[in-house]
Amino acid sequence: MKREHGYLLLTFLGIVLPYWYFIPFLQTHGFDVKELVNQLFVNKISGFFAMDVIVSSVVLWYFILIEGKKLGMKRLWVYVIASLAVGVSLAFPLFLYIRERQKSRGV
């Protein structure tokens, strides 16, 4: 399997798996941000994972800006939006997929 196909598969999983858990929340609570935050930080271990993902997102944004500019990639904001809409699980493999495609074209 080519590397870019692996990234594309991971992009798909990065959408499906998080939303597998998020859609039932939306069905029950709607887009209740207060309830989302309450459940996200319900105990120390869930807070640990939440902060890990938040910090990882910020690190990813920084990496995307640095690497994307270095490679002359366009529309870098798309990956930030992807991380906010789903998370690092979508934004990171999507960025790597597009980066691989650009590198394989020799751009």
Write the layout of secondary structure elements.
Blueprint: H1 3-29, H2 33-40, H3 44-71, H4 77-85, H5 88-104
Helix pairs in contact: 1-5, 3-5, 4-5
Describe this structure in words.
This protein is an all-alpha fold and 107 residues long. It has one domain (3-104). 83% of the residues lie in helices and 0% in strands. It is built from five helices and no strands. Helix 1 runs antiparallel to helix 5, helix 3 (44-71) packs parallel to helix 5 and helix 4 packs antiparallel against helix 5. The longest helix is centred in the middle third of the chain and has 28 residues, at 44-71. It is elongated. InterPro entries: DUF2834 (IPR021362). Pfam families: DUF2834.
**Based on CA inertia axes, which overall geometry fits?**
elongated
Number of strands: 0
Which range best describes the helical content: under 10%, 10-25%, 25-40%, 40-55%, 55-70% or over 70%?
over 70%
Unreliable segments of 5+ consecutive residues: none
Strand content: under 5%
Largest sheet: none
InterPro entries: DUF2834
Short description, anyone?
The protein has 107 residues and is mainly α. The protein is 83% helix and 0% strand.
